[in-house]
Amino acid sequence: ILQTLCELVEVFLERCVASVVLVDLKRSEGAQEHALRMHQGAPTNMPADLLPGADDKPLRAERCPIVMAATFNTPIISNNLSHESRWNGWCTTARSHGFRGLCSMPITSNSGAITGVLSVLHREAEPLSLEQQNLIAQFTHLASIAIDRVRAEAALKQSEAFLAKAQRLSATGTFSWRVSTDEITWSDEVYRILELDSATTPGFDAIYRRIHPDDISSHREMIRRQRRRGRDFEHEH
Fold it and tell me: What's the rounded Cα separation, in Å, for the pair 162 and 132?
């Protein structure tokens, strides 16, 4: 998605290259400030020596406009790199590649945290038109949605992995019951506890076959009661 966004930027704006750099803020133990970590989010036409971290030197705002946009979470725009007094070394390299202007837009999550930077280098030493600025803002918003979704999915997978490990260690299973349809889902540990094949479809029949006959009637009554009440409950058999 990020690669496609960069390609669309280059089509709509013409005579430019675009890139998306992802940002991670990590706090080391005992550190008072977050350490900025950046890496390329998608293949790009932007020269590698203009991307953060290309020379393995520390990421500093005064050395690169992309890092500056991420550090201060603010748009960085320069309409003429020949007149730019910031990032001298970076500007020299950019001009050697034929670029004359830049726009680096922070990509932020729903919470406002910096998650990346969309950068556009153009070959004309002219201000971006209002239409071009609006296009870049729209593409930045789309990049934000894509990054948020991927990171949310990754966090969910990690959470599920931790939960599964905790259940294995504690020999505890979890399940959910949709009362309106009697649809049941349960965790892998429940299969192990009940000694069921993993291909078995979860259901009350499988549960009843593993409850002592003397307890089945009270269990069925509990199920009927909870269908009416629809509240959290505890039951022991």
Answer: 45
Find out whether 175 and 202 touch, Cβ atoms under 8 Å: yes
**Start-end of H helices in the chain:** 2-13, 65-72, 88-96, 130-170, 188-193, 204-208, 213-229
pTM of this prediction exceeds 0.90: no
Q: What is the pLDDT of residues 170-190, one digit of tens each?
A: 888 888 888 888 888 888 888
Q: Which residue do the tokens 């910031």 mark?
A: 86
Burial of 150 (0-12, 13-18, 19+ CB in 10 A): middle
Q: How far is Cα 225 from Cα 204, in angstroms, rounded to an integer?
A: 15
Residue of 106, 98, 105 whose CA lies nearest to 50: 98
List, for residues 16-70, the tens digit of each pLDDT value: 999 999 988 664 444 444 567 888 888 888 999 999 876 667 788 888 999 999 9
For residues 47 and 42, what is the distance between their CA atoms, to the nearest angstrom?
13
